[in-house]
Amino acid sequence: MASATVYRKDYIPPTHWVDSVHLEFDLHPQQTHVHSTLIIRPNEDRINNDLVLNGRDLELVRIVMDGRELDRTEYTLMPNGDIVLRGITKEIKLEIENIINPQANTSLMGLYLSKGNFMTQCEAEGFRRITYYPDRPDISAKFTVRINAPKSVCPVLLSNGNLVEEGELDGNWHYTCWEDPFPKPSYLFALVAGNLKCREEKFQLKNGKKALLQIWVEPQNLDKTEFALESLKRAIAWDEERFGLELDLERFMIVATDDFTMGAMENKGLNIFNSRCVLATPEVATDRDFARIESVIGHEYFHNWTGNRVTCRDWFQLTLKEGLTVFREQEFAADMLGDSTARAVKRIEDVRYLRDRQFTEDAGPMAHPIRPESYEEINNFYTTTVYEKGAEVIRMLQTLLGKDGFKRGLEQYIRDHDGSSATCEDFLNAMAEANMRNLSQFTRWYSQAGTPHVRVRTHWDERSATYTITLSQFCPPTPGQTKKEPFFIPFDVALFNSKGKPIALQLQAETNAKGTSRVLELTDEEHSWVFVGVKEKPIPSLARNFSAPIIVDYNYSPEELVFLSQCDNDAFNRAHAMEELSLLCINEMVSDYERGTRMVINPHYRNAFESMLTDKSISPAFKAIALTLPSETRIAEAQPMINPISIRAAIRSLREQLGRQFSHLIMRVFDDNAPNPVYSPNAADAGKRAMRAFCFELLLAGGNAKSLLRARQIFETSKNLTERLDALRIIVNSASPTKFTLLEAAETEWRNEPLLINKWFTLQATATVPMDECPIVDVVQNLVERYPGYNAHNPNNVYSLVLAFCQNNLAEFHRPDGVGYKFWVEQVLKLDRINPQVSSRLARCLDGWRRYTPECSKLMFSALKYVYSQPNLSTDLKEVVGKALNNATH
Ligand code: ARG
Ligand code: ZN
């Protein structure tokens, strides 16, 4: 089908409103009957009387309007599946009957089956795969639902809101009736039916009421739900406390499913989760998984206000709910950690993710503002730009307005728009009004794509004891946007004296010094600030705590970076200085490698490394994250032409040399970081485990044979997955043949637990050395084709094997012989027939083709062209590949 572009500027309000919907389902795997009754009335401001009911892959049985069945000539069936009823000028009652086939639904949008259980996913446009409906977020209606199903297959029948009735039916069927007290758009509808069990608890709310909380899972997973329920309780209490937002329902349910394209979905009162974002025990989840589960539970819960009570007018406004909710989720996670270094560790992780994924997106053919101006397929815009950069934009508002000011703004936004749909302007207006600030320039963050660079120049004048900081901004062109207007950039700075102490800051116009850090507001292309009373040449700490999603260009000397890595009292920037040093070192080694000379470690980096490793005053968690080498993606980001093979060679040599040169020190640090023997996913213990894994990796790289035995022993005896997986990964990435035995043992032990077998896939997909001479692409291909536990219909399987390989194993995927790309072509095309959201996500691994070495680049280009030339591609895939081929940004 030809893909049509949808533009934000073309938005028109609905022609009709839906006052109420009653849905009745007769569930059947291949033939589910849907009977819907709609009360529809014209929008007074309408410009047109034609009522469009969206529909996809539905079998229409009948339409009855005001009690009379419509004749086939009384409505139009459009080629895309929609129905148009012309001239609807007064309130009508519509009854529609249609049939759907959940079993044949492999897209996982609409109603589908997951291991025999019925599940739904309606955001963004999945409801039209269930029944005919004006499927757009600016139409909210009261929903009631009745579900009829055979009792034996579907003992549990759930939908949004409150359970108002249940009972028995003939032929061993039963039913439940649900009523959602809050009007909602169709994308928040959910239905779950099957054989599930729940962990539940009545939870006391601040307002005195009690709410029933339930986590529904397949029976064998009931023991993995405790952490999720605890996280949910923490999320509810946090939103009451921090933003005064209360749970508005008597009942709040979470359901886990193994078959889910995304992380989770905030359906009103009935969140549906990918099981990897909800199920956890120490045996099946790592420290990171625990942290992620808490965040995602928080995220979906927080949508209840930012997303559900106030929703989006149209899908271009997606960041209105997603950016804001990611921000809320990040603040929640940080508040749960408490102390400031633990918070900094979380911030460093979030920013690294942003730099790895979003900065790359911004530099490629799919670059778009956090509020896109157009799309071919909305599912392609659930991106890290909309989500994570969107969250950074919200964070900048909090930085500019202060925590209290931000909270006031959020309260006003919710007061003004509760129960309706809103736009990004509505949000900014509420923020501006509540704080009496003009934020008009700030809106450019919503309309301009690309990562701004801020160039910093400094000048210390000894005689006048002044220090001048000049900031100038520049944003590179992105598809469709060659010239950018200046952004409003909050730029947090501090100045350090030679003793490592921050100095009190006083700008020229001020009468006295105030504080030791300052948020400069850069609004022009260039601006200078003059600090007075600066008696010695200071070392600046710039864009502290990542105060804006920008790239800072400043020529620090290596000595200054070493200094900051030791003294900066902003933990984020301290780690950042360490990262800059390691990048400097790795880039030098990359050049050594490419010139064919011996790779040597930069002495400044070496010093900083040693001093941080031995610093007793910092927490293991911080040490681990600050010392961890930058990801290959991060290293690639800074290179004009990417050669993944040299990057990998440099990293390997760096690890090996560090492991050899510091082996005694590292062994000591390893011993000092024994975690509590009773496992808990808390940040302090997790930090110790991370520190140990880091030590292990270096020791083994440095050729320490004992550490191999030790790793094996940990894999074989430890009870928690974090340690076991770290140990196994380190062995898999070593030259030791033990890896085959251990991978086999892991398979035997893990094959019946999807969470674990997915980890097993990823270990192999991301292995940094060939297995027995066999390139990793062959290992992956072999698993895809021959391993019985791999199922291409299951997104988690695809993500943890195929996507993990193509996205995260740069040196093996981008082999100059092109086998990686050949594999990519096959997989993208195969998966496109099954689930277009999955194929287009995989397709994006070739976004950056212009930036690779000429040989790779040529092969990537032909792979893209080949895919694009195939018939019947999904709109999802077509958009992504088409943009990769057409948009020249470099
Ligand atoms: N709103 C969900 C979230 O919490 C994501 C839904 C994604 N759906 C999709 N079709 N891409 O982030
Ligand atoms: Zn979300």
From TrEMBL:
Instruction: Describe the location of the Peptidase M1 alanyl aminopeptidase Ig-like fold domain by residue ranges.
Output: 450-554
What's the cofactor?
Zn(2+)
Question: Which residues belong to any copy of the Peptidase M1 membrane alanine aminopeptidase domain?
Answer: 227-444
Entry EC number(s)? 3.4.11.2
User: What sequence ranges are listed for the domain Peptidase M1 alanyl aminopeptidase C-terminal?
Assistant: 559-886
InterPro entries per the UniProt record, alphabetical: Aminopeptidase_N-like_N, Aminopeptidase_N-like_N_sf, PepN_Ig-like_sf, Peptidase_M1, Peptidase_M1_dom, Peptidase_M1_pepN, Peptidase_M1_pepN_C, Peptidase_M1_pepN_C_sf
Molecular function terms from GO: aminopeptidase activity
Q: Which UniProt keywords apply?
A: Aminopeptidase, Hydrolase, Metal-binding, Metalloprotease, Protease, Zinc
Q: Where is the Aminopeptidase N-like N-terminal domain?
A: 23-188
CDD domains in the cross-refs? M1_APN
Q: Which NCBIfam families match?
A: pepN_proteo
Q: Which family does it belong to?
A: Belongs to the peptidase M1 family.
Protein name, entry field: Aminopeptidase N
Species assigned in the record: Parasutterella secunda
Q: What is the lineage of its organism?
A: Bacteria, Pseudomonadati, Pseudomonadota, Betaproteobacteria, Burkholderiales
- As recorded in Swiss-Prot or TrEMBL, the protein's gene is named pepN
